[in-house]
Amino acid sequence: MTQGTDKTDKTALRPEVLFTVGPTQMSPQTLACAGRQVPYFRNQAFSDVVLECERFVLEFAHAPQGSRMVLLTASGTGAMEATVTNCLDASDRALVIVGGGFGRRFSALCERHGIAHDDLELDSEEALTQERLAAFEGAGHTALLVNLHETSTGQLYDLPMLSDFCQRNQMTLVVDAISSFAADRIDMAASCIDALIVSSQKALALAPGISLVLLSPRMLEERVARITSPTLYFDFADYLVNGTRGQTPFTPAVGIVYELLERLRRIDASGGIDTEVARTRTLARDFRGRIAELNVGAPSFPMSNALTRVILPKPVAGETVRALAEEGLFVNPCGGVLGERCFRVAHIGDLSEKDNAQLVIALGEVLESLGA
Amino acid sequence: MTQGTDKTDKTALRPEVLFTVGPTQMSPQTLACAGRQVPYFRNQAFSDVVLECERFVLEFAHAPQGSRMVLLTASGTGAMEATVTNCLDASDRALVIVGGGFGRRFSALCERHGIAHDDLELDSEEALTQERLAAFEGAGHTALLVNLHETSTGQLYDLPMLSDFCQRNQMTLVVDAISSFAADRIDMAASCIDALIVSSQKALALAPGISLVLLSPRMLEERVARITSPTLYFDFADYLVNGTRGQTPFTPAVGIVYELLERLRRIDASGGIDTEVARTRTLARDFRGRIAELNVGAPSFPMSNALTRVILPKPVAGETVRALAEEGLFVNPCGGVLGERCFRVAHIGDLSEKDNAQLVIALGEVLESLGA
Predict the structure, then answer these.
(1) A304: nearest Cα among A320, A288, A291
(2) In this complex, do B31 and A37 lie within 8 Å of one another by their Cβ atoms?
(3) Does residue A160 sit in the same domain as residue A277?
(4) Domain carrying residue A325
(5) Cβ distance B322 to B300 under 8 Å?
(6) Is A94 helix (H, G, I), strand (E, B) or coil?
(7) Which of A10, A27, A164, B101 could form a disulfide with A350 if both were Cys (CB 3.0 to 4.6 A apart)?
(8) Which residues on A lie below 8 Å from B43 (Cβ)?
(9) Where N6-(pyridoxal phosphate)lysine occurs, residue numbers (chains A, B) (predicted)?
(10) Radius of gyration of chain A measured on its C-alpha atoms
(11) Is the Cβ–Cβ distance between A158 and A303 less than 8 Å?
């Protein structure tokens, strides 16, 4: 699929490496799984696969007893929309944390579906603080929508702070953990999260195409059971009924479900989700340590283990991203105001400290050649 | 992925064969593609892939000049819902051909989205005729929704007849070709089709996860440009704007898009879509010829090349499907009233006359053992 495998340059052993947030570098085990015939799925064999995936995902999210998983064939945005429309309705007033492109997406979804909402807007370099939240205390909001990690800026929000806020204000808590699941510690039960959104192509490092929504018993009973989905394709009621026997109402991305099971079993066998999160944290710290020797910066707010936003001393981010890609090293550009001075480096997927070292050496050379 | 690869029985060389309608048997070339790292996609390399896919798909559908493709990460039902909501609105009155489960789905989608509709209901063994259509002539319908091949019963509808009906009655024509594209001849231009829906896991024989909607210039100008999508995830306007540069608004199932390009190039290199349709027709006729020697029947209405519904002399369809699966030969059960006496055999995917022969021999043995 990648053209670079024919290269005979210095990176021949590992011709292209994805430091992108999604798709991420897939492991040989996942690739072996992906290369197999997709089997028929309307049978017990596939039901068993789905049910085992659900058990693992709920366990890894520390979901409260009685939680359920909805398995969607959709990008993360599809799952965000499905969650907004099945878990909120016109009687709600949502508070949306808008710290970048993905927060704005939650806001746009509320707008599209007639859900009243206020947006807590952050500057791209501004940390979400108790002081900023205080303005919304006791203001009658019924739900908080947050991207635990705002992937466009790199900020990881303070989950205990948000959880306490929701508890005090009796708000349901909807968390997009698309780029945090398996990278940052998440405890649905302890943090009273009512809906958690996960996608295949981030820290799970699978092919993009499926997303998962985990629902707490409270969310299931008090909201999903009461709210009528405006769409058929994203109707949680239908998924939940079919899901009790490990099936989906419509043909799922069967191949990626098999990749998911293989990955979840491997996380389990390697010591569980805490070990996986620790591995990612170590990799992130390793990278952040290495770039300290270059003339670059990083944001001052808390960062997810999933990625580091690198801030350059000169506006040469576009050239830097392109030059690294020519070396087979793929990083994510930033959009908007961050675009000229920043790019993003992921620490999720099948990466090692050796990959970090290779990237940082290449980055140093590129910056030197650009006079930055 | 399939467990059967460890089997050491008589079918060891090809341990499991999918005669199912989707997923279908994938070719070695597709599997090789599927087993490769999913690359980063927000760049020109991926844009070029998407644009080449669009050119091929429009060509293979004989789409009129100026048609466009929308690339969705969703099952076929997602694409059906996206089409209904972006191409119809409350000012419409649709006529839905309901000849089985998939026709009922179009009807349910109209219902969910407040689109007035009348259903032309067929019995499971009833052919759609000019006489049945006549009752709806000049009745003020604005759109016809039809599954070209009603996959739950096996019926292929008469496209020229439906097209003439739409032309006479000035109706827009929406065709679900999910199980017909690349299996039955389709000419969007000649049949004045305004929207054509395709999915990855049928005759294209790719992993399930992406669906395509092809839109005629008339549909684009007169409807899509005017109608506001109720959802963000399925908002065609957004896909069409991004699609001009070969991108999608949200992360697509990148891996399957690469499978798609490889498959489209292979169809092109093998003589084009007409050759592929002819190959499937030959395979279907071969199968239908072979079962003529068994004590089974087939429907009397026109059938798609994509599958044959086999009608058994006794109500042993469930046992038959299970016994064949034990041999590694997977066929589709039928739902509802057809369930006890019928099952379905697909002729799409990487199948050969040798596979047909193996299946028919096994079927003969199973029926004999069941006394049917």
Answers:
(1) A288
(2) yes
(3) no
(4) 3-19+272-369
(5) no
(6) strand
(7) A27
(8) 325
(9) 202
(10) 21
(11) no
Asked whether residue A286 is assigned to any structural domain, the reply reads yes
DSSP character for B117? E
Q: Is A344 annotated as a binding residue?
A: yes
What pLDDT is stored for residue B15 in this prediction? Answer: 78
Distance CA A331, CA B259 (A): 24
Residues of chain A with pLDDT under 50: 1-12
Amino acid found at B318: G
Query: Exposure pattern of A214-227 as b/e (b: 16+ CB <10 Å)?
Result: bbbeebbeebbeeb
The CA–CA distances, whole Å, from B110 to A112, B79, B91, B115, B266 equal 20, 14, 12, 5, 37
Instruction: Specify whether B138 is located in the same domain as B261.
Output: yes
Which residue type does A211 have? S
**Shortest Cα–Cα distance, A2 to chain B (Å):** 6
Using the predicted structure, report yes or no on whether residue B205 has a pLDDT greater than 70: yes
Joined together, the tokens standing for residue B281 give: 């027709």
Tens digits of residue pLDDT in B136-145: 999 999 999 9
In this predicted complex, what is the ipTM? 0.95
pLDDT of residue A72: 98
Specify if A224 maps to a domain: yes
The enclosing domain of B289 has a CATH number of 3.90.1150.10
B264 and B347 fall within a common domain:
no
Q: What phi-psi label fits residue B349: left (phi over 0), alpha (psi between -120 and 50 degrees) or beta?
A: left
CA torsion B323→B329→B332→B337, rounded to 10°?
Answer: -30
Of B18, B39, B75, the CB nearest to A250: B75
Q: How many CA atoms lie within 13 A of A32 on its CB side?
A: 5
What percent of chain B lies above the pLDDT cut of 90? 95
Crossing angle for the helix pair A273-291 and A254-269, to the nearest 10 degrees: 90
Same structural domain, A48 and A105 = yes
| Region B92-110 average pLDDT | 98
Given pLDDT bands bounded at 50, 70 and 90, which one contains residue B13?
low
Say what the pLDDT of residue A13 is.
Answer: 54
Question: What six digits make up the tokens of B371?
Answer: 């006394």
d(Cα A59, Cα A62) in Å, to the nearest integer?
5
Domain match, B214 and B308 both: no
Suggest the residue from A233, A321, A327 to mutate for an interface test with chain B (most B CBs closer than 10 A).
Answer: A233
* Cβ–Cβ under 8 Å, residues A359 and A283: no
**What are the residues whose beta carbons fall under 8 Å from the beta carbon of B366, sequence distance 6 or more?**
B319, B320, B323, B324
CB contact under 8 A, B255 and A207: yes
CB of B139 within 8 Å of a chain A CB? The answer is no
